[in-house]
Specification:
The protein has two domains: about 90 residues; about 70 residues, OB fold (Dihydrolipoamide Acetyltransferase, E2P) (Beta Barrel), CATH 2.40.50.140. About 45% of the residues lie in helices and about 20% in strands.
């Protein structure tokens, strides 16, 4: 078993190190393949399982397979091997070493799965949805040429944070400091604005 544990530890740790390096350097942009039950079987997560089996079968199988990804399997392999080697080094029997190593592998798999899901949720919650800018009131940061002749910049509060967006207008030029309201989203970081009504 020592050779088997060593192979798992070396392969797992090597791949984990490579993943960490690629993530830190920004060379890896691809996310793990998500095989969670909510993402397969159609755009709205529907399954083609026979009626009556959807709840029991999907919940049982997809709950397990939902944690399987390249990262989680790699982590499981690394901790399985390392734990097995540590147990053998302390004179623990082969059966006990295998059992403890397997438990460590499964635990690490679920931990990595939980960690990646948590990071994904944080990223999703922190992403500004520019579509929600329509109707928002802000001010001109850099003068906006009139009649869509060019772009300036505006600042406004979106999802509880102050953001700066490129902006154009179909009206007269808008000077710096002018109050505006967003009327349309025209790009991933650009909006069309109009003068905001000044409340008296």
């Amino acid at each position: 078993m020592t050779i088997f544990f060593t192979i798992c530890a070396v392969l797992g740790c090597t791949v984990l190190a490579c993943q960490f390096f690629l993530t830190v350097t920004g060379l890896s942009e691809a996310d793990d393949l998500d095989v969670d039950g909510h993402d397969i079987g159609g755009p709205d997560g529907a399954h083609d399982a026979p009626e009556g089996h959807a709840d029991s079968h999907a919940h049982g199988s997809n709950w397990f397979f939902g944690v399987i990804s390249f990262r989680t399997v790699t982590a499981a392999m690394a901790f399985f091997g390392l734990t097995g080697l540590a147990m053998e080094a302390n004179g623990v029997g082969q059966s006990a070493s295998l059992a403890v190593a397997a438990a460590a592998g499964v635990a690490s798999m679920y931990f990595v799965h939980w960690m990646m899901r948590s990071l994904a949720l944080l990223k999703a919650e922190g992403t500004t949805r520019i579509q929600e800018a329509v109707g928002a009131v802000g001010s001109v940061y850099i003068k906006i040429p009139g009649h869509r002749a060019g772009q300036g910049k505006v600042t406004l509060t979106l999802q509880g944070r102050t953001v700066e967006l490129n902006a154009l207008t179909g009206d007269e030029p808008l000077p710096t400091g002018a109050r505006i309201v967003v009327t349309k989203v025209v790009g991933p970081d650009a909006v069309e604005v109009a003068p905001a009504a000044v409340s008296v």
